[in-house]
Amino acid sequence: MLPSPLTGLNLSEVTSARSFPDAVATALREGILTARLPAGTQLKQDHLARHFGTSRAPVREALQVLTGEGLLVMSRHRGITVAPTDPDDLQEIAEVRTMLEAHALRLSIPNLTAADLKEAAALLDEADAAPGDPIGQSDLHWRFHRALMRRAARPRVLAQVESLHVTVSRYLLPAWTAAGLSIGWVASHRKLLALARRGRGDDAAELNARQVEEARARVAAWLAGQETP
Questions:
Q1: Which DSSP string do the residues of 146-181 spell out, in sequence order?
Q2: Are 71 and 170 in contact (CB under 8 A)?
Q3: CB-based contacts of 82: which residues, under 8 Å, 6+ apart?
Q4: How far apart (Å, rounded) are the C-alpha atoms in residues 150 and 1?
Q5: pLDDT, tens digit, for every residue of 93-150?
Q6: Which residue has the higher pLDDT, 204 or 166?
Q7: Domain holding 32: CATH number?
Q8: Are residues 68 and 92 located together in one domain of the fold?
Q9: 182 contacts: CB under 8 Å, gap ≥ 6
Q10: pLDDT at 51
């Protein structure tokens, strides 16, 4: 039986056939990111279709989306399962994020508008006001970064960065929830915003790289502690 937190998805809110795959993907994604669906959990299409009261087609599409995000893996013997957590994977995500985000920040920051900077500041204020909501914090964290990178005019780069933010959230959110490792991210990102306001793209890229590595190191240490007998 699926873990009970997934029963909170209200399909009565779905307004079109196109919405069903998105709704199923959203429910499963939240279950994975909060570790309610732990690594190795099998997800069977028939079971999911019955659970969500829909056909297999939208379930299949939702599973394909989550597989593309790196949250699910497929094997011949076990079918579709929640992807394992792996320190090497976390390291690679950090490395790729650093490269792509540095490129995007350097291109975007000289072109940011006053409205972009105001939006970024408002997102940090909103995060400050709701520190106890890990899912909300993760969403605000990504939206802040997107606000600073959107003027890069590199849609493929930003799409890859967004996918990486989703994937890394399955490492960050359980750590944030269990150990409070998100404490301080808003203050550190205000420094990033200050550099963006001054048009210092290179400095912002370097600070962002340090922040990504510091977060990776904290989460890797937490993961290592979880594996200790």
A1: HHHHGGG--HHHHHHHHHHHHHHHHHHHHHHHHH-T
A2: yes
A3: 32, 37, 38, 39, 40, 41, 43, 71, 72, 73
A4: 42
A5: 999 999 999 999 999 999 999 999 999 999 999 998 877 777 888 889 999 999 999 9
A6: 204
A7: 1.10.10.10
A8: no
A9: 131, 134, 137, 172, 176
A10: 87
Share of the chain above pLDDT 90, in %: 54
Are residue 73 and residue 17 in the same domain, yes or no? Answer: yes
Last residue of a domain, one of 47, 67, 82: 82
pTM higher than 0.90: no
Domain count, the chain: 2
Separation CA 171–CA 221 (nearest Å): 11
210: amino acid identity, one letter: R
Cα–Cα distance for residue pair 58/7, rounded to 1 Å: 17
Task: Note whether 91 and 56 are same-domain residues.
Answer: no
Domain containing residue 130: CATH number: 1.20.120.530
CA–CA gap between residue 62 and residue 21 (Å, rounded): 5
Structural domain including 198 reads 87-227
Q: Pick from 58, 82, 106: which residue ends a domain?
A: 82
